[in-house]
Amino acid sequence: xxxxLALISAIVYGVSDYSGGRATRSKPVLAVTMVALCTGLLVxxxxxxxxxxxxxxxxxxxxxxxxxxxxxxxxxxxxxALAGGAMTVVAPVTAVISAVVPxxxxxxxxxxxxxxxxxxxxxxxVAVALVSGISGRVAQPTPRRVALLxxxxxxxxxxxxxxxxxxxxxxxxxxILIAQSTSIPILTAVVIVRRVRFxxxxxxxxxxxxxxxxxxxxxxxxxxxxxxxxxxxxxxITAMYPASTVALATIVDGERLSRSQVAGLxxxxxxxxxxTAGA
Length: 279
Prior knowledge:
Helix content: over 70%
Shape: globular
Structural class: mainly alpha
Largest sheet: none
Distance between the termini: 10 Å
Radius of gyration: 18 Å
């Protein structure tokens, strides 16, 4: 079940990132991030109300709040990177970092995947690196600023994965709502200072709203997956989300893939099979 939930999370994350990336091409990054977070908050409130989970303990609240801060850092940096670089490069670079961070934390904390699963994890990281265009040429050059933003986004998302995994099972879906509630006031202050305008709301912000709703859905699947399986396995599978982002960017936007990127997509499937079998 953990593997299936992580895979669903990866697919939904990828579609969310594609939607958010497309939105930043016509709207300010902060506006897109704000609309996405507010939409996610509404979805989170609805889910918690439906589940009727009791309010969590102090430690769970702290981890959830920390996750919210990292979500804001990762999301803002990621959208900013997508606004200035090719989606087929930015998303996978971010994913490599976001996979390595929780993997290191999980192993340091005592995770011991089977030899087959461990081999699959290593192949998955190589696969995502190949998809990122680390070997071979890609259609568009990536400026250093965009690359640094992608790395920052990866660290933010990686710590988001770690902090959400630290919450207890008794917390239910509250960690998702608390994370959203923590990040929105911070971003609101930035939006006010920067005097960001939300012209054409809501019909011209539909992609940002879709991105926010899907991000929360992906977070829920990831949170449930960490409660069923090892952090090192779940996080790496979730970090395969660039596969769906790249697929959409290629099909819809016509972004071209190099041979190494195509090979990387193939290795994603191999890695997934090995991790599933080894789990």
